[in-house]
Request: fold
Amino acid sequence: MPIVHHYNTEQLQRANKLSAWQEYMSSVYYDLDIVPLSADKVRGELYEVQFPSIGLSQFKADAQKVVRHKSAAQRDKSENFVFLFPTRQRMAFEQNGRAGVVLPGSVFLLNSAEAYRIDVPDQSENVTLKISCAALRSRVNKIDDICGTKNFANPFLVPVVAQMGAQLLKFDGGGDSMKLEQTLTDLICLMIETHPESDLMMRDRQSLVSVMYDRLMSYTRDHFRDPNLSPASVAGAHRISVGYLHRVFHRHGTTFGDVVMEIRLMEACRMLQHARTSNRPINLGEIGYSCGFVSQAHFSSRFKKQFGVSPRNFG
Reply:
């Protein structure tokens, strides 16, 4: 049986936790950028084991953004299908213009060769299966088409696969590890292939609300630096009413204002971290304005409210 590795930030000094956690995550998966939602609250724990074609891990962490950048994917050339099974809190994801929120007991699928983002709330736990694309492409027809989606799996088999993955992290299978790996791969294929056909057709005919949500999110990400961005301006650009815009965001468990603020604050975090790692002087006014805030005071106020520290003390 392959060796199980354990990584934990609990005993580390505060100043070292973020860099260590980012190193742990990149070691277990591939090159990732980790942005905690509170600089004072970096908690993470990972159990991981690697079979020849499957990597199994169990993840526990507090609120953070897990970002896979396109440049990182091009650099490390990782090409794995990544099945994530939330087991405690819901998780949100985005890849290739597709987005969703997944509750515990469900699963979503990402491709490490493409950029993506995962929103991890406090006290999150999940089981993750990282599988070589070559191991599944020959067995599951058009599997690439369901990357960046949820609702592609048989709901009765999802917890079976997640539980088996979690148990394999604890089970000493000795010389049977290859058989266990093959059994898990077979279950994953069965989980996808036995999804009700009617649901697959519904997924292929994505609802108008979901299509509009994707368009609104894409437009907002492209224009968040505009301080005049508003529900009215975005609705006008898409020829819909402001009321309908609000209903679309509500159907996806959020609001337009929360989405814009989150995008602006996450970009501000990225710029602050880049300035620090590059040893460049930090101009809070310039960062705030470039992220769409009307003033440095407004930027600092919203930043501290979100992260618990001022932007100057962040990181």
